[in-house]
Design goal:
With 264 residues, the protein is mainly α. It is 67% helix and 3% strand. It has a three-stranded antiparallel sheet. Strand 2 and strand 3 form a beta hairpin. The radius of gyration is 22 Å and the shape is elongated.
């Protein structure tokens, strides 16, 4: 029977959660993911607080990227199998809901959209129809869905359609969508800094686009700017962005020369 057997599914999921808790996050990754995994309980929910000593221990552990890649590949494959087993067995109970919530939350942290996106849609369109989500769970998922549409897929029209379809109300989300519509890079960076780790990861898909908005605005408005303001406006370091975007601007001490006035 394999993963068509309900009891086997539950045992397999226990192993997935144990593997996730032990996942070796490379030291060069955003510390947000390390703390989020460290705070994940065996129920797949997030603890509101985490032991300080344990959090510090996790930060100091710096496994190499090859070890992480191997562990990640195994974990993602296991999550795919448990999802397929649940779908094939037509399971829509509390366990199915718990598994899918866990997969969605985890794959956002892992920035693995090929796993996150189908899991989210199946939970909203299939599981929710048979086993209703609580309002808080539904709001959490709709928030992820809207951010993914607006930031990664650059589909603001569908983001607003989903917002209306599920009667979703969230002031912070409204400000994020408004910032993208009006190309307000200042508001976008400000809101991103206030969001939870998963929301920040989803918003990160729009970083390059918003950075382009900021560069365009700076180029039109200024002849020169301070490096500190450039970093604030683009949410990037000068050297990295100059190389990445092939900027023709010139650094002069702590000042970036955008344009030089032509003398008559």
């Amino acid at each position: 029977m394999g993963l068509l057997d309900l009891r086997t599914q539950e045992q397999y999921f226990e192993k997935i959660r144990e593997s996730c808790a032990k996942l070796s996050i490379p030291g060069n990754e955003d510390e947000g993911i390390r703390d989020a995994f460290a705070s994940m309980s065996l129920t797949g929910e997030d603890r509101t607080k985490m032991d300080d000593a344990e959090a510090q221990k996790r930060r100091l552990e710096k496994p190499d990227s090859s070890e992480y890649s191997k562990e990640l590949s195994i974990l993602l494959e296991a999550m795919r199998k448990i999802r397929e087993g649940i779908v094939a067995s037509h399971r829509f109970d509390d366990f199915a809901l718990r598994v899918y919530m866990f997969v969605i939350r985890t794959t956002i942290l892992l920035k693995h959209m090929p796993s996150y996106h189908p899991a989210l849609l199946y939970l909203l369109h299939n599981v929710h129809a048979m086993k209703s989500l609580s309002r808080s769970e539904l709001d959490e998922l709709i928030g992820y869905h809207i951010l993914d549409l607006a930031c990664r897929q650059n589909d603001l029209a569908e983001a607003f359609a989903v917002k209306h379809r599920y009667s979703y109300r969230n002031h912070a989300m409204d400000l994020v969508l408004k910032a993208l519509i009006h190309e307000n890079w200042f508001a976008f960076w400000k809101m991103k800094a206030t969001m939870g780790v998963r929301e920040r990861y989803l918003m990160g898909s729009a970083d390059d686009r918003v950075r382009g908005m900021a560069l365009k605005a700076l180029g039109k408005a200024y002849l020169k700017i301070q490096v500190g303001y450039f970093v604030h406006a683009t949410n990037s370091r000068w050297g990295e962005l100059k190389e990445q975007d092939k900027l023709g601007w010139v650094l002069d001490g702590e000042t970036i020369i955008l344009r030089r006035m032509q003398r008559s």
